[in-house]
């Protein structure tokens, strides 16, 4: 007897956001299995942030559904909240708090001990030691705020981590540290959804790349497919640009 395939960690079905013909998302379908890093690519206004916010339960779609780890996200079931982490954008961090106070605040909000001892190795691996955490966030550089926001999203070891342009502003050493952390989490069965306009981040991190255009998924590539294209001398930006142009010419179907 054939065994039923394991259900995906994340399943997005027919997701629509917007009214009438003004659709930001127009019937998006997406499946992510544990262990995967998925990159969402697209121009500004393509719907990357909207999709990320719907997945995180921060925006309610007009149609469609989002299921995470067996629970419907838009119902904000406690199990779906525990299963999800979203990196905090640097402009949303409370600059009057110290890094340590910020970690305490977010840990308590997640029902963890206020001192969050499990966060110490995570923070240290991103270059945020005790001396850094004692400083107010207003003194942090953009890169330091990005690293703290990433760490806050990873508190509690969520099954799915959503990153919305969360790697921009990181130097090469910090980017490598972030990649190692994300890969380690995925090796334990977690998954990452990375929304970005930076192809270099997507090509470096992702197992699969999805191109959003006109509110729909216009193209999808596995990492090995991109490696073959690059090995043949193809410019990956041109590949993605051509897919966008073809999609636009066909009226946005796909």
Structure description:
This protein has 254 residues and is of the alpha/beta class. It is built from ten helices and ten strands. The chain has helices at 48-55, 78-83, 99-109, 119-125, 130-133, 142-154, 172-187, 199-205, 223-231, 236-249, and strands at residues 10-19, 22-32, 37-41, 63-68, 71-72, 84-86, 160-164, 191-195, 208-213, 216-222. A six-stranded mixed sheet has the order 6-7-8-3-9-10, sandwiched between helices. A four-stranded antiparallel sheet has the order 2-1-4-5. β9 (208-213) and β10 form a beta hairpin. The longest helix is centred in the C-terminal third of the chain and has 16 residues, at 172-187. The radius of gyration is 19 Å and the shape is globular. The model has no long low-confidence stretch (mean pLDDT 83).
SSE order and pairing:
Blueprint: E1 10-19, E2 22-32, E3 37-41, H1 48-55, E4 63-68, E5 71-72, H2 78-83, E6 84-86, H3 99-109, H4 119-125, H5 130-133, H6 142-154, E7 160-164, H7 172-187, E8 191-195, H8 199-205, E9 208-213, E10 216-222, H9 223-231, H10 236-249
Parallel strand pairs: 3-8, 3-9, 6-7, 7-8
Antiparallel strand pairs: 1-2, 1-4, 4-5, 9-10
Short key terms for the protein model shown above:
254 residues; alpha/beta; Rossmann fold; 6-stranded mixed beta sheet; 4-stranded antiparallel beta sheet
